[in-house]
Amino acid sequence: TGGDSGGSESGNGGSGDGKHGGSMTFALGGSPTNLSYWQSYDTVTNNLTTQIWDSLLEYSEPDMELQPALAKSWEATDDTTYVYELREGVTFHDGSEMTADDVIASAKLTLRDEAKSPLAWMFGAVDNFEKVDEYTVRVNMAEPDASFKYVPATTAWSVAPKSQIDEKGTDLAQEPVGAGPFKLDQWKSGNYVRITRHDDYWDGELPYLDEATFQIVPNGTSRITGMKNGNYGGTNDIPIDQLSVLDQIDNVELHTVTSFQTSHLVFNCMEGPFSNTDVRRAASYAIDTKAITESTVGKYGSHAYSMLPEGMMGHVKPEDLEYNGFPYDPEKAKSMLDDAGFTGSPRFETTLMTPKDTVRQKPAIAIQQYLSEVGIKVNVKKVSQSTYVDTIWGEEDFSKRPGLQMTLWASDFPSPDAIIRPLFDSEQLPPSNNWFGYQNEKVDQLLQQFKTTLDTEQRAQYAKQVNQIVVDEAPGVWIFHPDTTKAFNTKFEGYAGQIPAFVTYFSTFLRDMYIAD
Amino acid sequence: MVSGQTVGYLLKRLGFGVFIVWAVTFLVFALLQLAPGSPADILLSGGVVTEEMRRTVIEQYNLNEPWYVQYGLWLKDILTGDLGYSFAQQRPVATLIADRWAITAQIVGLSMVLATILSIPTGILAGYKHGSKLDLVLTVGAIVGVSVPVFVSGVLAILVFSFHLNVLPSGGAGTGVVGRLSHIFVPSLLLGAMIGALMFRMMRAGMRDVLEKDYMETCTAMGLPKRKIVIKHAAINALAPVLTVSGLWIGFLIVYSMVVEYVFGMGGLGRLIIHAVEAQDAPVVLAGTIITAVVFVVSNIVVDVLYTKIDPRVVIGGQN
Amino acid sequence: MTLLDVDGLEKHFTVDSGFLSGLLGETRKLKAVDGIDFSVDEGEAFTLVGESGCGKSTAVLSALRHQHPTAGKVRFKGQEIEMYSKRELRSEAQLIYQDQQDTLNPKMSVGEAIAEAIRFHDIVPDSEVDARVDELLDRVGISPGDKYQEPSAFSGGQKQRIAIARALAVEPSLLVADEPVSGLDVSVQAQILNRLMDLQEEFGLGLIYVTHNLGIARKISDTIGVMYLGRIVEYGDVDDIFENPQHPYTQALLSANPIPDPSVDRDRMVLEGSMPDPIDVDETGCPFAPRCPDATAECETADMGLEPFEGDETHLVDCIHR
Amino acid sequence: MTPPLLEVDGLSTHFKTAEGAVKAVDDNSLTLHEGEVLGIVGESGSGKSTLLRSVMGLVEDPGEIVAGSIEYRGRDLTTMSDAELRELRGNDISFIFQEPTAHLNPAYTVGDQITDVLQAHTDLDSDERWERVYDLLGRLGIPSPEERAESYPHEFSGGMAQRVCIAMALACEPELVLADEPTSALDVTIQAQIIDLLTELQSDLGLSMLWVTHDMGVVAETCDTMGVMYAGNIVEYGTVESVFADPKHPYTEALLRTVPSHLDTAPRFDTIEGSPPDLQNLPSGCVFQERCPDAMEVCRNERPPYYEVGDEDGWVSKCFLHEGNPTRSASPSAPEPSAPLADSQTDGGQPTDREGDR
Amino acid sequence: MSQESADFSASRKTGRSRVLAGAARGWRIIRSNHLATAGFLIVLGLVFVAIFAPFLAPYDPSAQDLDSTLAPPSADHPLGTDNTGRDILSRIIFGTRYALAIALVVVTLETLIGVSLGLIAGYYKGRVDETVMRGLDVLVSIPPLLLAMVIVTTFGINIWNAMLAIGIVYIPMMSRTVRSSALSIREETYVQAAEGLGYDSKRVMLKHILPNAVPPIVVLGTTDVAYALIDVATLSFLGLGIQPPKPSWGAMANAAQEYILVTPWPIVFPTIAIAIAVLGFNLLGMGLREVLLYGGDYDEVVE
Ligand SMILES: Nc1ncnc2c1ncn2[C@@H]1O[C@H](COP(=O)(O)OP(=O)(O)OP(=O)(O)O)[C@@H](O)[C@H]1O
Ligand SMILES: Nc1ncnc2c1ncn2[C@@H]1O[C@H](COP(=O)(O)OP(=O)(O)OP(=O)(O)O)[C@@H](O)[C@H]1O
Ligand SMILES: [Mg+2]
Ligand SMILES: [Mg+2]
Prior knowledge:
The complex is a heteropentamer of chains A (517), B (320), C (322), D (358) and E (303). Chain B contains twelve helices and no strands. With 320 residues, chain B is mainly α. In chain B, α5 packs across α8 and α10 packs across α11 (269-279). With 322 residues, chain C is α/β, with parallel strands linked by helices. Chain C has helices at residues 19-23, 56-63, 86-92, 110-120, 129-139, 156-169, 186-203, 214-220, 238-243, 248-256, and strands at residues 2-15, 28-41, 45-49, 71-76, 79-80, 93-96, 174-178, 206-211, 223-228, 231-237, 307-309, 312-317. In chain C, strands 6-7-8-3-9-10-12-11 form an eight-stranded mixed beta sheet, with helices on both faces. In chain C, strands 2-1-4-5 form a four-stranded antiparallel beta sheet. In chain C, β11 (307-309) and β12 (312-317) form a beta hairpin. In chain C, α4 packs parallel to α6 (156-169), α5 packs across α6 (156-169) and α6 (156-169) runs parallel beside α7. The radius of gyration of chain C is 21 Å and the shape is globular. Helices cover 32% and strands 21% of the residues of chain D. Chain D contains 13 helices and twelve strands. In chain D, the strands form two sheets. In chain D, strands 6-7-8-3-9-10-12-11 form an eight-stranded mixed beta sheet, with helices on both faces. Chain D has a four-stranded antiparallel beta sheet with strand order 2-1-4-5. In chain D, a hairpin with a 7-residue loop joins β11 and β12 (316-317). In chain D, α3 crosses α4. The radius of gyration of chain D is 21 Å and the shape is globular. The relative contact order of chain D is 0.14. At the A-B interface, α4 and α10 of A face α2, α3, α5, α7 and α10 of B. The site of one magnesium ion (MG) has 3 residues of chain C, from α2. Chain C: This is ABC transporter ATP-binding protein. Chain C: It comes from Haloplanus aerogenes.
């Protein structure tokens, strides 16, 4: 398998429509750490886990509507109650049939301590899960949470058989048994993961492919090379600088789409010079975010005016803002800094912490340069992922945190819930996600309303108001929304295109793909 | 020759080898303890962490014990054959290693073979004809060979041979004998060339030394054929110093195979260790160092035993 | 006056014999020097002769505390040798080594080498060191102008003379020369040995000379000890021993020495085999017995020790047949 | 008289160095007859080994035979091809070296090394070769040869190792054995054994030997004829008895005086003052002139030719003290190329121009 | 007092003349071998470039020009630009400083620690030797790059730690070499003679053993620098060494592999620089080996 081309037509197709059969080798940019659903929280692992695990709901492509999956319908009966009607006759990989018990046990597994699920918070507002009958599950909330409706479409609530959960517990991470279109065949850690067709998949026709191999190819150049040479049927995570190369290869189709991710610079709003709002504004003027966007992501991303990309509720444009989104103006920056009393040379010195990937590191270096031009000396400190994680979540004393940090934040839902609530709420200081140290009572208040209101129009209003205040107070510099990308060999068809991606959700893209004649 | 003395010597060497391996683990363990960031946080990285979760993890991994207790517990596990559990990968270390050692072993083995094939005959030739044009060409070639870091030659090989010419697989380790060979041949060749350049230099130096030896004169004076003089009498003796350090090279090869694996995207031990080091995934790093140390110690013992075959003056366990 | 008095000196080396036997506590002893006595008076020249490996060097080195003897008493100038500090002892007793090629540090000019010794032992005030160096070099026949040269600029014979100058620089009362000329040409040997004899006489030094060259031994020494396997087998006045050797080994040694005169026709007494490794020696009996043409059954068990030959206290022999 | 086995004529071997040529062997001639033992004595560095190596063609870079011929049974060794030389070496002409242990390959058993020689020069099959090895080792007084053949060189004492080397040298029954100080590294009692052994073998097998040593005693006891070498020149050549009895060259005379003997009771050592000349800058005249008590004006300017001395045939000395005696056949590269060979032989005097100098 | 100062100035003068003589001797040694000469000239060139980097570099090494990123070589940018539009030539020129810093650190650590340990072990032999050597055996049993990786992650990924780590891992080899030299030199007659003159051990070690152990130290030190350059570059390439935006060659190569398919120049030129520097030290080391260990008065052979 693998062989010369990313796929082969092995011909033992199912229903003779010509779409069935064959295999694909997908080049994965990194090693999945495990194959559990409850820990699937990164762009590498989710590609794989979503093939194995199915959740209650999924999104329609490309319009991002929730649609039935393992649940055939759902309903919010009131502010704090959700009811899910399960599909009957769903078979797990182990041959057992799905019932309400399985669904509840699966959610509870995510909530177990030893699961160490980074997604557990999604159930934060849940009071309990209730089995109404064999095929009905009710969720009772402790308080209203408008974003909860998305949770059943995430990997936080994929479904595994209760018998397996009881027997293996978190060891399911190594030997996953789900209801997804493919089941695990072989896992050579660090090398490849092979999955094969789940013949009893609930959607009769699907999947088309007999088998897929996720080959772990960390080196982007090798992935592109393999795509060019037809070794791989598909890949993702292409290094931004080389996307154009992939784009130009004839037998490869590149799919890019704006993501709900934002590359941004975080100011330390509690300690040091950046606790002064004017200094933050000055620094924002000093940085040419458009140029950085252009040179970093080019056409594979879009310039950011705030944390919320276009198409998401609460999105703002320069004209909505008091400071017009801080257009590049170093002179203005200098005079503002003078006014703020920073006149020396350098005016002051600070540290910018960044992890190593291009998407964060390259802007960091550009920012260092821009700030030095207005007299701020920046020491770029490149750290390993673990140190980075340690600092941004672990360091609660803001006087010990760096003045600046480069961050890439991704939303878990197609709504601002997973952006403005965790990032700007003054309740959410580290070890939670408000690493800006940003505090604004008005914002806190608006966020509370945003959370508890279910009406979409209203929520959009609150979100926009929060966003305007935040952007004008500049707790950070918003730089760009990088596209997410996937590429496939042209002989594979059926990829529905991608909806703007967020981490916890990647469609089980393989399910619908087949080899063209 | 396999006397009580030999057995005794081997026991002594093994005993010392065990000490070395122990000391290595101790050193690495201590270093990792010094590293910033608590293992618990590394374990829990990537999400919102409740205090309770933290506590669970800390207890699960004995992280609240003083480090020497942790070390003791870890050592106990190792002695019972349990290599521990990877923090970052959430899998038993033994599984991780079982999945990956073969690739590394194959790369190391193949590059050693290629290095030997490349270096020994050329080294003999260059040493025998030292000062000649051929010697100069080979010597300069060898210096250039060691001067180009393997990551560079690897990346360039991918660029040229895979991307532009499409004659090489671009990544992965391949399956099946042919598939595996086609994937690891070029990486092993690059690695082998690097080691081979070093071996060549030693072989050449060894030849030169041996050719100065008095017994070479005896060979000439007794009218032995040239081929016999060079191969039987000179090369064997010149091989001895090469052999003594070849144990060192095994370790060298293991780490450099990491680089090769990294560049060519093969999931061997090397990449496992690199990622573990980056993630401060102590159990994996420790297991990795243990493996290299064990391989190192064992290969050095083997080398010593082989050495006595080449140089009978060195009697195992004797006073020389 | 007796300068050096060595009594029952023993030097045993422990030979590592592998791990297992080590565990079993089986260490093997190499008896390099196995109980020897000799003494040197002021102005006297004493020579140790014997074949390679018989323990000559070890004997003098351990007598003068360059190595730690296993047993035995050594008195220097009437005092226990342990009473001297290392520095004192070294300035009293100086060694000249065999290997002229390497006797001087190749990275140090010869003048500096001599000056270093003088300064270290505070022989003369710093300001006079230079003059002293010149004088010493002159005495051994090296032009003082050459003192800035490194040793590689000198021939073997010259280096050996410089080494002698350095040994004399610390003004010792005892000079030990361990085969100091064996690598040199006969003509050069003769020059050096003559000079050594002159200087010894002039300074009234005690001299211990170690050699396997019987021709040199005859001329240079007053008394001589013939060593075999770590023991002195015959000891006494040099002429006495050369003309009237009593021990069979001494006889064989003298007989084996080629005589540079083709007209002398003699029946050589050729010993079988070679001197055994000192590790494998039997504890009892005469160590020379296995090679001795005169050996009898008694020799294998007899108590050995130097005894006066025919009551002559100046000629001692270690053989039960004499 | 039988034709000579080895005839060296006007041999010069120089080492090329950055500072000029080291004239290690400079215009020497000698003759070795079948069954004869010729001793070469001289001090360290006088060129003995180089002379011997030149005969065997073992001189290595930067050394080179710059002049002269070496005829073995009428065939000139200096012009032979490598292959031809290889045929001769170890087969017709053998070599015994000074340091036996260093001259044996530590990696192989001694038996193995001796069979290598047999394999190179004989048609014997493997079994026959080993038979021969056992036979040889036994004859050379090595106890239990079957076992010892399987031993490695380091397991032999110096004396035993030298027996092995001799066995190797004699393996193919050579006619000529070149021995470079074969006993100097050994103890006197062992040396006596080896000397006796070699002398015995020589007469048993009718070997011819060229025996280099620096020990006058060894020469006196073993050789028939001898050459005395000084600074690259054989300064005197004759039968052992005559030379010892009445040395005709001042250097020979001085050398015999200085050798310390245990029979000599004189209180001091006899010396030759000064030291040998630097082989890179040999004086223009006689090489011994600087240390010679009898040096004359002519010695400073001219290199003396071989003068025939004594009554004996072939006794020669390179010294002007014997001026007036007939000179011996000069070699093609003799110091006086202008002097016709016939001239010097017939009128026996020194070349005429030298007379003019006076 | 005056006497003393006169002595002092005299010794200073001889000190200086000795330095000059040493330099002259060194040059003679280097000159006598083609490899060494070539290597020395390369190293000299590196030193020159490192010192005069600000004058030689056409641009500020960290000045970015986001309008011309990944530009191919041109008149403006002779070696092209990287993905933030920084001039590669200028960065390579400044990168020389890192290469030489690595060389300096490695040499310093090797000589200060490696040589002392080796000297002490070789001189005192016995138990001291055992202890030191067993300790070093432990270090040697961890492959250098791996040990460096662990050290770096422990103490933080930055330039100094990377260089220190590489320096540390090269210590055992140096110690072993010095020890084996010291072991054999201490048996040399001249050391025995120095002991025989009653000299104290410090004097014997420093004045009599060390100066004679210099050739292998020089040779090994030089070649080790070559390997250290590769190791630091490799470490940087793996992201554990010198970090961008510092213009170190390895870091540049590391960054450039992300866009090698767009333009190979940003990886090709820095690696050529690495290769040249490594080649320089290697040639120098090999040449010195020929002269110091095979030629002239030296016949000791160390590998
Ligand atoms: N340090 C040592 N360890 C073990 N054995 C030793 C040591 N030094 C000397 N010996 C052994 O002691 C014996 C006597 O050695 P020594 O050097 O005293 O002999 P020697 O008579 O001086 O010989 P030579 O004439 O060769 O110098 C030899 O067998 C030698 O191998
Ligand atoms: N490879 C060489 N390069 C330069 N000079 C050499 C070389 N080999 C020998 N010589 C010189 O040639 C001269 C003769 O050396 P040779 O070895 O023949 O002397 P020898 O009489 O055998 O001395 P010994 O008794 O020490 O063996 C010596 O001065 C020596 O320095
Ligand atoms: Mg001795
Ligand atoms: Mg010689």
